[in-house]
Amino acid sequence: MKLTAKLVGIFLLGIILLTGLLGYWTVQSEYEQFKQIKSENVAALGNEVRETIVVAWKTEGQLGAIKLVRDFANRHQEMIIRWVPSGDRHQTPSAEVPKEELEIATTEAMATVQIRDSQGNEHYMLYYPIDIEHDRAGYVEFKVPLEDVAQYIRMTTYRTISILIGMLLCGVAVVVAGVSIVGRRLDKLVEKTKRIAQGDFSQPVQIKGNDEISELGTALNQMSETLETQQRELQEASSARLSAMEQLRHVDRLKTVGRLASGIAHELGTPLNVVSGRAGLIASNRLTEEEVKESAIVIKSESDRMAAIIRQLLDFARRRPPQRSIVQPRELVSTVINLLQPLAHQRDVLLELSESSAMPTSLDPMQIQQVVTNLIVNAIHASSPGGTIRVSIISTKTSPPTEPNFPERNYISICVEDHGIGISEDAMPHLFDPFFTTKEVGEGTGLGLSVSYGIVEDHGGWIDVQSKLGEGSRFTIYLPEQDA
């Protein structure tokens, strides 16, 4: 509607200006043309009477010439004609014509002046010189009223104003019609576009008519339906992708549980032997009451130890949706290390956890445990017997490597460093590709690092890898510090 009013206003203003200028130029042109015609008529009349006045002057003198001028004036009532003797300026008070201009006037260049009388009427004064024997005898004064010209100018002005008023009324009518035919319909289209921008594809716009605007409304409705369908398909695909990713993460977790099974089985062997031996002594009835009580306490302690190990394993293997909570990073990593100690002992590898200055942050503890577990398990497999794996946790200020110009912020970095076989340069670009692995057949599926990278990326972080073949590797997890 605003666009319609602006377009009509600009168009109407242009037409009004052109019409006004055209009327002004027409009046001025015709006014000058009228004066030219009057001058030509007076010149023709002056030439007509000139010879007669000269003859009358010679035969009858000045009085005869003046009488002849009066006769001409009586015959031409549309103008006032009178005789003005040369040098007698007091008889022409209304014509302020300079003396020099009168003296140099000829039949081809008459002296002219335009005056306005006391009543406000304009007159065109022309002085036709009369020479007798090369002497300037006087002038014939022609006083032409310009009332008809003024009347014509007024009528032209009135007509122009009437045309302008008519155009203005037409412009108002066009604006009203434009608001009804174009403006309101465009408002509906704009409102529909805003709803689409907000993700609301319901309520198709209703545009009546059979013109371009109605076709635009139909096309907008079709686009809205297409976007709604694509949005629904995208949501379904996104849900399927998230479900698939969660399944892959769960599979990877179960794979890790399988790797831990042998170490945990070895870890459970000793307390099971203790429980079995103590139970056998109690069953033999060879113990005193005090010894039976002591054996029961030992059985209870070893049973609690086994239950804690199994509970850690079950908690790690249990599948649940992602859920953030405030977690102390060091406690989370310490839990993982305790869970992996049996596997490390089985391979004669030492796990070390350094002191941490990292503050509690918001993350999904089970997912980050899975990531740290994958990295430590890989480090154990890559280490030689007697090797050491160091895990450190610090708070650092940095920016993502893919966006170096991004403002720096605080990150929690969890570093897992080993001195094992390392990673070749050919394998580095494919390290996080799904199903890519450098291990022997049956030892790995190639999902661990891929799943870990996806989890860290979902948390807004990244994984940095530094490795040299034969010298070891260092995997660093960067997680943004977040409040609850």
From TrEMBL:
Cellular compartments annotated: Membrane
Record-annotated membrane-spanning stretches: 161-182
Keyword set, alphabetical order: ATP-binding, Coiled coil, Kinase, Membrane, Nucleotide-binding, Phosphoprotein, Transferase, Transmembrane, Transmembrane helix, Two-component regulatory system
GO cellular component terms given for this protein: membrane
Stretches assigned to the HAMP domain: 180-232
Top EC class, one word: transferase
Coiled coil (residue ranges): 213-247
Gene3D superfamilies in alphabetical order: 1.10.287.130, 6.10.340.10, Histidine kinase-like ATPase, C-terminal domain
Domain Histidine kinase: 263-483
Protein name, entry field: histidine kinase
Pfam families in the cross-refs: HAMP, HATPase_c, HisKA
Gene Ontology terms for molecular function: ATP binding; phosphorelay sensor kinase activity
EC number(s) reported in the record: 2.7.13.3
Reaction catalysed by this enzyme: ATP + protein L-histidine = ADP + protein N-phospho-L-histidine
Domain of life: Bacteria
SMART domains (UniProt xref): HAMP (SM00304), HATPase_c (SM00387), HisKA (SM00388)
